[in-house]
Amino acid sequence: MVSSINSTGGGEVACLYQSGILEREFEGYAILTAICLIGVLSVIEKRKDAYQCCGGRLKCLIPVNLLDGNRDTLGYAAAFGCTSSTIYLNISTLYSTQTSFWDWSALVVFLFTIPLSVVIGLTFYPLFVCLTPSFRFVHSTIGLGYSTLWLGLTSLRFQIYVICIKQSKWMLTGTLIAMHIPQVVCLLYLALRFLYMLATDIKNTFHAYRNGHTGCMELAVLDKAENDRLANAKQIQHVRMLFLKPDNSTSPGQYINKLLDTIQLSYKKERPFRYSHRVVVTFTVALLCLYQVTVSVFGVGTHLIILLDGFVDDHFKNSSIFLEFKDGVKLFCDVLTVSFYVSLILATLLSGISIFQIMVSYRRNMMALYRGDFSVIPNEAYHQSAITVMTDNLHYPGYQIAYLIWGYQIHIIVFFIACVLIACLVVLPILGKVQLVFLQPFLTLVSTTAIRLLISIVQKFISKRWLLHDHDVLNTETGKTNKVLSLKNRDTYHNMAYFMFFYYILIALIRCLMRIVKAVVLGVILFGRIDRSGLMHGFETWDTGYMAYVSFLQMELVHCHPVLVVFCDQLLQRSSAGTVQVPMHNTNDLPNHIRSRTTSIVIPKYNRRIHNRWLKVYTLLRNPTLVNC
Length: 629
Known about the structure:
Strand order of the largest sheet: 1-2
Strand content: under 5%
Helix content: 55-70%
Low-confidence stretches: 214-226, 580-601
Radius of gyration: 32 Å
Number of strands: 4
Mean pLDDT: 76
Number of helices: 21
Shape: flat
Distance between the termini: 74 Å
Largest sheet: 2 strands, antiparallel
Order of helices and strands: HHHHHHHHHHHHHHHHEEHHHEHEH
């Protein structure tokens, strides 16, 4: 079927168009298959509520727990990674059809995003449901078959790209194939994981039959005794660490060590902090989308550079009129080529550093909120209604990915323009490739900057030597000694203030433009970081991306605070066991005088209410401030 595409003729565009129709047809079949699988999985699952409809079946499936889930983070990251190629292709196709912002096409594109997001979600829904199986054999079999189906569809895309595009345009073929490599890797991981689950379930089944366990439901249903606990191991470990003496010894930090420490937080078992599912899958999809944008920009840009070089060679080869401009045009083409690759490398590095900084900032903000430090949340955001917080926190993953993608593209454009200007105004005049008149703006900028720094150094010297008293005070925060802010020579100060009054009126007319330049530079560099507000203090609520991040932090704090979750988990464990037992201490980590204490008191069920009332009265007597709360 694929080989017959190229026989129709019509060139590459017609071939890709026909292959796109065939690909959409296969994707339509995949969506119908996904809907059927969702129905089968819903029938298999049993409802837990009292409303027993359809024999207790047709349960509402949960694809992934993005709020407080802590199991199989890598599997969910791979499942979301499978969606990256589909998301990128649909975005490219959708927004390329928009002809103008001022006509109805913009409205059509905006409205079409709603059903498109539903289609993408339904397409990959079975993969997520099969990662949290109640029946390992059924779920692993369905997951293995569906992931293999998508592997076949991806291989079909590769075959189409090889057939349709000519060998002379190998760069475009390689670009299109490289864009789908992350999806293939994620699908292979999921297929191997489902195969491992299936093999493990068959092995356990044989062992169970050999040991005399013949109940089918006992063999099929996964034991959820560990999963039904409200608190996970990391949250319990965090609370245990609160009872230990903190280790204040710090080693000299290095940037690479911070990077490795941040990466290890996702999987190291001895670490009490772990990134949530939503953070991991958000940055997984962001990295894969940035990879696809990078590959597409690199492939298209390289192809255009090859075409430009060929055009210049062919145009100036037999033309005697433009022969004298050939060297200048070739030089400018070389500048464009080098600027393109340098801007692409710088934008890629900056995006990677931004993602790393966002993860560090998220960890630091969450740890501060756990300690009760709410300074990371603006006052206006902290006093928002619960409805606003609930709505805005759902926007965070999409906003973060979109801001990173847009920021990466803006970085490429800005760095490209900056590299061209630096090459034309600094590098080429110094190398003697162009006239020295192009170096004049750079020399003016350097000279004025040097004069400004010299004046600033002179002012600081005068302030230190003649205006301030010679008394040093120790700054407890930095550990350094500074001059005390006490005026010594008032006559000199009054004269300097008088003359500087007129001087800085003239200078500030130019210096005020630097405020705009600095704001633009910081806005471009930090565009993808929505953990920081791009607006000044007091106007943070106008920044929708930052408010989505702040609402996400509040949602994580309220529902995932380790102390709160562990406390509720212990209450549930005690209520089910009928004893007051809080085994929070790990006896191997505590001193001997604490290890010998017991925290278990057996309470009969009929005395539990009396005991709870006594604990309430005792707590209120020991904490009288709680009475007035």
